[in-house]
Amino acid sequence: MGRPASAIPDFYYALFAFYEPALTLLGFIGALHDPVTTHNTQAPWPVDSPAPDVLPKASVVTVIQLAHVCALMGIVNFFVLTAIRKHLALQPALQEKIMKSLMIPLLIGDGLHLYVTLWALGEERWDVVNWSPMLWTTIVLGTSLMIPRIMWHLGIWRYVDARDGKGRESSSASPAITNEKN
Fold first, then answer.
1. Parts of the chain with a pLDDT under 50
2. Measured on CA atoms in the order 90, 96, 102, 103, is the torsion positive or negative?
């Protein structure tokens, strides 16, 4: 079996154009439906200070805004990846360049999201037995996206122009796609 001829083969497309947007949209819907639970389950609460039953309006707005930004990123992934696969299907080197522009900030974001989450927990970050289900979900799902992004950058299971482009015309010399129906 030969190497994939796309910088976005089905595995990465399914993961980043469907799995990630689904996660972010479900998180947004959950925050809209119950911002108090979304807020209160982000981290363990001290025994002597139980989680509030009612949040200040500013906290509700903040929770919903943050969930909206996450959902927006997932939707952007879907549309960008779909456009790249559709309109640049015959130009895998160009696919790779554009994907790298999307994947670098997302990989940095994955790493920083995990780091900031653990940093914000303070000394409780080591008390994993008392982590809330939401905190576990954040760590596990964040890692489930970060590891495949690292794999993409390493060229695993995808077209890599420097490795696979030997003998192909360079992307700058290849003719433009003439199919401009959409």
1. 170-182
2. positive
